[in-house]
Amino acid sequence: MSSTPSLLFYLITLLFLSSPAAATQVCSTSAGKFTANSTYESNLNLLLSSLISNGSASGFFTDTVGRMPNQVQGLVLCRGDTKATTCSSCLSTAGVEILQLCANDKDAVVWYDDCHLRYSNLQFLGTLDNDPEMAVASEYQVYDETDRFNKVVNELMNSTADWAAYNSTKRYATGLAINATHAFPNIYGLAQCTPDMSASDCRQCLEGVSQGLPMGRLIADNLGVRCNLRYKVGPFFEGNPIIRLVSAVTNGTTPAENTTTPASAPASQPSVGSTSKEGKKKTIVAISISGVSAVLLIPIIYICYRRLRKQTSKSPYGTESEQATQVDSLLFHISALRAATANFSEENKLGEGGFGAVYKGVLPDGREIAVKRLLNSGHGLGELKNELVLVAKLRHRNLVKLLGVCLEEEKMIVYEYVPNTSLDNFLFDPVRGKQLNWGTRHKIIHGIARGLLYLHEESQLKIVHRDIKASNILLDAEMNPKITDFGFAKLFDVDQTQATTNRVVGTFGYMAPEYVMHGKYSIKSDVFGFGVLVLEILTGRKSSGSYNPEVIEVLLSYTWEKWRGGSALEIVDPTLGAHYQRSDLLRYMHIGLLCVQEKPNDRPTMSTVVVMLNSETVSLRAPSRPGFYLGNGGRNANFNPSNSNHPIGTSDRGSKSCPMSSNEVSITEMEPR
């Protein structure tokens, strides 16, 4: 176990550097509510469509729709370093979620890492008012060299704000402070205003925001409609910082004079004052650092930094064994997991995955957990490490949260408990399937798409999941989807587009043709699996786990034949009855068919998929026949359109792992996953 603390330190550092992806919103109650099907709602929908389409192209856009008293104004701004696809995806998500988070409010704003959006019945575009503002910070504070840390942060924020205001036509700048403190040597900062502001107005706005920026925290933002500031003890923006502040390493509690490169502002700066108004309300919101329980992780990170810094001196935390005990607080002891799961009783068994069983548990503090109990094999341990390294750095509302790990005589991973189990338990059950009304299916499709987009493009990593299927989609209490099981996931370099393997892993029926036949996989492989899943959700029919392509792909062939013949609605899941939006359903089926095209280059990226799902005005090209097309609706006589829950071919046997043959065409060996 001597390597365990260093392994944990590495994983925890990855967690610590992750950025929160959840939305922060302010919903105004004073502006009133609008009613369904009202003129205001119609104007708002037109406004959101305009903001998303125009803002995606330029990164900033304002617009006004309608006449008083039903006039609505809006503004969108993407972070200055975001790519067009990331900006478009963020704005599309914002346009959907702001209506859910602030249902029927006439005035609302929502912020994400990559963008923010505001709409209002107030005439706010004619002013430079930054309201509403929201201060957001980690609940964990810096205790060592706090004065030095705060002074460096202030200098970094001032220099970055100067550059954004006076040296950037985009009114955007990033910075890096080096040699900040021993525990946290690097601090990253960002300042941004809307680009329609003058230099002096931008700088004055940022000065006002700086007055409410929380200090002495590991991460802090002060968010506004017109300008915002952010700092963090790890990187969070793309590219190199525009300015750098280098402090000499000193033994004192205040930094030596900084060297700033490049100069951040002109010599003649206008004096600025606070723009804070009396009565302005600012709320500091504690945010989670990562998907793992932050209560356990942040103190451990801090201890690890101290241990590295003071290896040659006496530790203030006591002996090495006492420090190891503190580090071990991340770990779940097997005795605790046995107690939580009633010794892994059959009553608490949630299901059987590719590498072992999953059990429900309840911790002494009342938290419900899911424990993946890995099979006792070297292969399982390798998948454990793979899943830890990948999932630990990911944080998104549509990905399952990792809580901890057990590394004793049994290897286990502990996740958040998701009460409604997996999607396949509803989708392919004629009784439970009735709970999946059209609104729920709509929400599930959108959530899976956003989760995959995060994996492919929006997280600090680029990850190919390789096993997207209905049983790997968990549903929470509100039926929101969460992607799980990263045992087969692969990390890609930023510029990497494809990889090849001699050992194909995944689930037949969801795997792309180029992967099954040649071992080639990419983000487009996940797009293929997503397309199959969309068609399953719409039809209620199962793409089997058989490894024979002539059996498994009947769903794709049959859907394609019906689509091409103009009778696609004949294969809609009968449990929906007539209670669905016909145009939306056909559009989603269209998107699903585009995702299962035979050639990877013919499939859209997930960022394009999200845009297509969220916009009725985006034109869709006609799909061609899907991969594994069999012709004449397939060859399986068991495929009965009147029975939506009848599986195609054999039953799903779970994920498979098999070596490629020498000619990379036939599959010669099957193993349990």
From TrEMBL:
Protein name: Protein kinase domain-containing protein
GO molecular function per UniProt: ATP binding; protein serine/threonine kinase activity
Location in the cell: Membrane
InterPro entries: GNK2, GNK2_sf, Kinase-like_dom_sf, Prot_kinase_dom, Protein_kinase_ATP_BS, Ser-Thr/Tyr_kinase_cat_dom, Ser/Thr_kinase_AS
Biased composition (Low complexity): 253-274
Lineage, broadest ranks: Eukaryota, Viridiplantae, Streptophyta, Embryophyta, Tracheophyta
Biological process (GO), any one: response to salicylic acid
GO cellular component: plasma membrane
PANTHER family documented for this protein: OS07G0538400 PROTEIN, RECEPTOR-LIKE SERINE/THREONINE-PROTEIN KINASE SD1-8
Region (Disordered): 253-276, 633-673
Biased composition (Polar residues): 635-648
Keywords in alphabetical order: ATP-binding, Glycoprotein, Kinase, Membrane, Nucleotide-binding, Receptor, Repeat, Serine/threonine-protein kinase, Signal, Transferase, Transmembrane, Transmembrane helix
Domain of life: Eukaryota
N-terminal signal peptide: 1-23
Domain Gnk2-homologous: 22-124, 131-236
Annotated TM spans: 284-305
Pfam family, one: Stress-antifung
Residues engaged in binding ATP: K372
